[in-house]
Amino acid sequence: MPICVRATTGADTHLDPGTNRENMADRLAKGRDANGSLFRWRGLSRALFADRSRLLRDEVRAHGWGREERIRALITGADPEAPTLF
Fold first, then answer.
1. pLDDT computed for residue 2 by the predictor
2. Residue 6 near residue 14 (C-beta atoms within 8 A)
3. Which of 15, 1, 4 has the alpha carbon at shortest distance from 60?
């Protein structure tokens, strides 16, 4: 899984404290137990996966979610600075 870039600390947080056992039970209950097999970055090295996750996190921290083209490029692994045809 990529680093969570929507983490918050208020009443609106989606993060709950818990043990590893509680976390795994919650994951199973929510149908998130596919071990990342459906995730689009599967097959990348752990280092490359972490690098992409950090780039996405840093983009969102700096500019929010409003720059959809850059976000899409980072999620797909494309260079957001590369020129496009359209």
1. 55
2. yes
3. 4
Distance CA 2, CA 49 (A): 7
In DSSP notation, 10-44 reads: STT-------HHHHHHHHHHTT--STTTTSTTTTS
* pLDDT digits 0-9 by tens, 47-67: 888 888 899 899 999 998 888
What token pair was written down for 53?
């996750």
Rg from Cα positions in the chain: 15
pTM above 0.85, yes or no: no
What Cα–Cα distance (Å) separates residue 82 from each residue in 8, 17, 22, 46, 79?
31, 40, 43, 24, 5
Tens-digit pLDDT string for the chain (86 aa): 555 666 677 776 667 778 889 988 888 887 777 655 555 556 778 888 888 889 989 999 999 888 888 888 888 888 888 887 76
